[in-house]
Amino acid sequence: MTSRFEGKIALVTGGSRGIGAAIARRLASEGADIVLTYGGSKDKAEAVAEEIRGMGRKAEAVHCDASKRGETAKLVADVAARHGKLDVLVNNSGVYPLTSLSKCSDEVWDEMLAINVTAVFEGMRAAYQVMKPGSSVVTIGSVAGDSAQMAGVGVYSSSKAAAELITRAAGREFGRKGIRANVIQPGPIDTDMNPADGQTAELQKMMVPLGRYGEADEVANAVAFLASDEASYINGTTLKVCGGMTA
């Protein structure tokens, strides 16, 4: 394994499980010291951090309630202050409400926007203040951000579309400072949020030309590439990791 992130500090929000945990492990395997956040899964987050420390890297699990205004911005500033810098920010925290537009409650809508959209905005705004040229932001979006592919996804789709555009706008604005910002849109990925044996799994597999769910590590591979210097001229764009679902 290469050491593309040797000496770098990476913050991965929602890093206690699923895609976030895979991203934290992958960046650590290539030399990064990791700060990962959790909402309610402290034990899982601590387990991921301990695994990373076993690789010889520094790691800490930090609680952050992304649904609360100001918490993500405070986190970013705190990480940069304690570590002296922030090289990589991965906006991964998210919720996945399956509800129709007509039945979505105000509470579900407000929480989803707070976590999926506002926290992304706050994190990137704070990151601009502390990141140096050569740093990178990667937001985990979703192919659902391009279209409401099936009933019950439209509410979620709207939040992921917003997160994508916020990040791409950051690429245009932050690029003047030498900070890149890109989006990854996964298709169906086998996690506890959308398991490969879930109620809609067979339908989703039928929509993917490769005929299967993706693995969290396959998303983590893409994050490691976009966050690295190998992607130094890739900015303000979207990479789909979806098995051809949107082809």
Descriptive notes:
This protein is an alpha/beta fold and about 250 residues long. It has one domain (about 10-240): Rossmann fold. About 40% of the residues lie in helices and about 15% in strands. The chain has 7 helices and 7 strands, in the order βαβαβαβαβαβααβ. The protein has helices spanning about 20-30, 40-55, 70-85, 105-130, 155-175, 200-205, 215-225; strands at about 10, 35-40, 60-65, 90, 135-140, 180-185, 240. A 7-stranded parallel sheet has the order 3-2-1-4-5-6-7, sandwiched between helices. Helix 2 links the parallel strand 2 and strand 3. Helix 1 (about 20-30) runs parallel beside helix 2 (about 40-55) and helix 3 (about 70-85) packs parallel to helix 4 (about 105-130). The model has no long low-confidence stretch (mean pLDDT about 95).
Radius of gyration: 17 Å
**Percent of residues in helical segments?**
40-55%
CATH fold descriptor: Rossmann fold
Strand order of the largest sheet: 3-2-1-4-5-6-7
Ends: how far apart? 31 Å
The domain tally reads 1
By oligomeric state, this entry counts as single chain
Discrete helix count: 7
Indicate the low-confidence ranges by residue numbers.
none
CATH superfamily membership: NAD(P)-binding Rossmann-like Domain
Report the count of strand segments. 7
Mean pLDDT: 95
Query: What is the element string, with H for helices and E for strands?
Result: EHEHEHEHEHEHHE
| CATH architecture name | 3-Layer(aba) Sandwich
User: Main β-sheet: number of strands, strand sense, barrel status?
Assistant: 7 strands, parallel
